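PROTEIN DESIGN WORKSHEET
SECTION A - STRUCTURE
LENGTH: 515
TOKENS:
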């Protein structure tokens, strides 16, 4: 959603780099370009004025003029001001001292409240809570049935005593849900209220009556991030008519300009608490202003990537795989487990998009095709346990059998096996270069003679490797699947990712010791 804004801001700030000193004219020109980018992204005019004023004031101060790298300092200022627009600090849910805590969802029809109720319940369940969904939308056709289906998919209880479709009193249902939650020992109640195609007095009154009946600990305003400036006016109407304590952005995976979503926090004064970026129940997370600002400015979101990895990977399995990797004993079975763990983190296109500088290969990521990884999994699953353990025994007849069983050609089998051996050899050399993963590295891969290749450089990568190991068995010839013959050149990523930081000594690393 923020791709266009991200591209414009990245381009504007890129022009500052390389300048040892910034004049007032440089700062004014940069501010003008940023203002145009924000207005084109549909950010509300008062928010743009406030943002630009803050950036210009700080950029013309001693904070920048005395900096060793004034361009980097301006980028830092823009990032901090953007974080401020988005809310500053991450806001967490507040729970009642005596259960159940009540969370009320409000918003227009079509904003995604019912689906969001299931996503929020699933997320709360993963946090150790026992939520219950309440079907208080008794007007929209099949709204009750939809919530029941969503609740079943999320694995949470649904309180739906009325059939809906115009039958039943939503205020009474909401009031009875609190008693049911106490009886069934649910510590959180999520009330899904009715919406309208537009703001009207009847909807506001019903939402206010439900609020008075259940006295929610949190009232979340659910806003479709694709509706443009209407998001701001609708948020103001709900703030004045019902009141809310937080905002949830939905449909962040859309292709609208999305700038209005950046305006909601500044205009209403209430923080953005959650973000939903897809149809699946797991496409939901806490909204972190600093991380979103970092992604908009093309700096990536490594913290979210690390958190997803911690959830998807089993620590003991990962450590065992690292030991095998360093000793050159990694098998195709291990590789299959690691591939499945990575895919549990979500689409690889999204994961790669969190890397710093990923915006520079946006077109390649857009053409990313994960079907190749499905074929790789099919090939490995078509092997016997012995073949996965020792791919060297896969002779011509075995390759023909695997190809027939997995629906691929023999050349595909050859390519996978060859790439697996290349990757394993390269990883073993890297383990030796960096002291070994867990002490099992083969240090013979390092040439220590004077003037010889390899001194301080690490292992020579296989042919075709461009920033990302093309010999990695999960990737097709040429690098990233679906990205064309050459694959994305990760060497073009910004931020000095190809350079070791000053004073960094790889020989002192020891990956095997536990702290």
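SECTION B - SEQUENCE
RESIDUE ASSIGNMENT:
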């Amino acid at each position: 959603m923020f791709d266009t804004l991200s591209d414009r801001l990245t381009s504007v700030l890129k022009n500052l780099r390389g300048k040892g000193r910034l004049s007032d004219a440089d700062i004014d020109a940069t501010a003008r370009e940023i203002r145009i980018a924000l207005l084109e992204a549909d950010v509300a005019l008062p928010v743009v004025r406030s943002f630009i004023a803050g950036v210009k004031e700080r950029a013309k101060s001693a904070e920048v003029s005395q900096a060793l790298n004034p361009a980097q300092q301006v980028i830092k200022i823009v990032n901090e001001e953007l974080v401020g627009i988005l809310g500053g600090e991450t806001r967490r849910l507040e729970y009642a001292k005596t259960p159940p805590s009540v969370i009320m969802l409000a918003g227009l029809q079509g904003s995604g409240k019912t689906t969001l109720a299931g996503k929020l319940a699933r997320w709360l369940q993963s946090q150790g809570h026992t939520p219950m969904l309440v079907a208080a939308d008794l007007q929209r056709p099949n709204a009750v049935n939809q919530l029941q289906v969503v609740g079943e998919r999320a694995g949470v209880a649904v309180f739906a005593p009325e059939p809906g479709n115009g039958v039943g009193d939503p205020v009474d249902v909401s009031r009875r849900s609190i008693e049911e939650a106490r009886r069934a020992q649910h510590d959180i109640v999520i009330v899904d209220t009715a919406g309208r195609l537009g703001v009207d007095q009847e909807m506001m009154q019903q939402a206010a009556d439900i609020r008075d009946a259940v006295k929610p600990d949190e009232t979340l305003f659910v806003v479709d991030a694709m509706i443009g400036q209407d998001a701001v006016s609708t948020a103001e109407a709900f703030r004045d008519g019902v009141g809310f304590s937080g905002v949830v952005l939905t449909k962040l995976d859309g292709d609208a300009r999305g700038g209005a979503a950046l305006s909601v926090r500044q205009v209403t004064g209430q923080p953005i608490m959650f973000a939903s970026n897809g149809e699946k129940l797991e496409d939901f997370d806490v909204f972190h202003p600093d991380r979103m600002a970092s992604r908009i400015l093309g700096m990536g979101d490594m913290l979210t990537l690390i958190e997803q990895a911690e959830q998807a990977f089993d620590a003991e399995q990962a450590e065992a795989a690292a030991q095998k990797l360093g000793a050159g004993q990694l098998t195709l079975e291990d590789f299959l487990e690691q591939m499945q763990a990575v895919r549990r983190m979500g689409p690889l296109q999204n994961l790669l998009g969190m890397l710093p500088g990923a915006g520079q290969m946006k077109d390649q990521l857009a053409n990313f095709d994960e079907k190749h990884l499905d074929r790789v999994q099919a090939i490995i699953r078509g092997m016997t346990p012995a073949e996965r353990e020792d791919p060297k025994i896969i002779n011509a007849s075995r390759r023909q059998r695997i190809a027939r069983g997995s629906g691929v050609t023999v050349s595909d089998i050859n390519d996978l096996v060859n790439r697996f051996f290349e990757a394993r050899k390269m990883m073993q050399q890297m383990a030796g270069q960096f002291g070994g993963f867990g002490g099992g590295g083969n240090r013979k891969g390092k040439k220590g003679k004077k003037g010889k290749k390899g001194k301080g450089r690490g292992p020579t990568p296989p042919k075709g490797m461009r920033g990302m190991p093309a010999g990695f068995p999960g990737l097709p010839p040429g690098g990233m699947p679906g990205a064309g013959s050459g694959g994305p050149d990760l060497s073009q990523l910004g931020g000095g990712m190809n350079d070791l930081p000053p004073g960094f000594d790889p020989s002192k690393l020891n990956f095997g010791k536990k702290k």
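SECTION C - NOTES
The chain has 21 helices and eight strands.
Residues 436-501, 509-515 have pLDDT under 50 and may be disordered.
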